[in-house]
Amino acid sequence: MSYYILDETDKQILRILLIDARTPYSRIARMLNVSEATIYLRVRRLKEKGILRGFYADVDAFKVGYKVLAFTLIKIDPKKYKEVLEKLREFKEIVELYEVTGEYIGLAKIRTRTQEELTEVIDRIGGVDGVLATNTLYVLRMLKEERRLSI
Fold first, then answer.
1. pLDDT for the residue numbered 2
2. Do 115 and 66 lie in a common domain?
3. 147 in a domain, yes or no?
4. Is the pLDDT of residue 148 over 80?
5. Residue 136: left (phi > 0), alpha (psi -120 to 50), or beta?
6. Secondary structure percentages of the chain, helix, strand, coil, to 5
7. What are the φ and ψ backbone dihedral angles of 121, each rounded to 5 degrees?
8. What is the span of the domain harbouring residue 97?
9. Does 145 reside within a domain?
10. Among 36, 75, 77, 138, which lies 20 to 30 A Cα-Cα from 144?
């Protein structure tokens, strides 16, 4: 995996879009004292390089009914590693899935509406062929959640 070296204009564009992804290119161009075409070409290049992966609405999960947040560590049989992770990627309740170091190979961020739904998801994870054990951490209170990188 390679990375792309950002120049100061790219960084400024990303900083603006991180604050408000709906900022019009014309406004960004005025803010940076460059042409709108320059902004268009730079944003297109940032998309092509995979740096800008998309533009999303930031929805408060709690306010739309997803009141339960948990993290589950998943111990996986090394012989079934790829198959298990592919299966887990299909779970709609798993909103983030990571490969991690240590005793547990997977880490899943899970959002559900109720504790009962969370229990069902954990049971389904445990039932996937190749899952050896799970350890779930129920979030009592979120203290910080930052989606913006410091660029």
1. 67
2. yes
3. no
4. no
5. beta
6. 40, 20, 40
7. -65, -45
8. 62-138
9. no
10. 75
The Cα 77–Cα 55 span in angstroms is: 37
What's the pLDDT tens digit per position in 99-141? 999 999 999 999 999 999 999 999 999 999 999 999 999 999 9
Residue 53 three-state SS: coil
Q: Which of 134, 135, 120 is nearest to 76 (CA)?
A: 134
* Residue 20: strand pairing partners: none
Q: 85 CB contacts (<8 Å, ≥6 apart)?
A: 76, 97, 99, 106
* CATH (domain of 23): 1.10.10.10
| Helix segments in the chain, DSSP class H | 8-19, 25-32, 36-48, 81-88, 115-126
The C-alpha atoms of residue 36 and residue 105 are separated, in whole angstroms, by: 46
pLDDT tens for residues 73-102?
Answer: 999 999 999 999 999 999 999 999 999 999
Same domain, 75 and 100: yes
Residue 122 and residue 116: Cα distance in Å, rounded? 10
Answer yes or no: is 67 within a domain.
Answer: yes
pTM of the model: 0.82
- AA identity, residue 66: Y
Structural contact between residues 76 and 130, judged by C-beta atoms closer than 8 angstroms: yes
Six-digit token string for 106: 């997977």
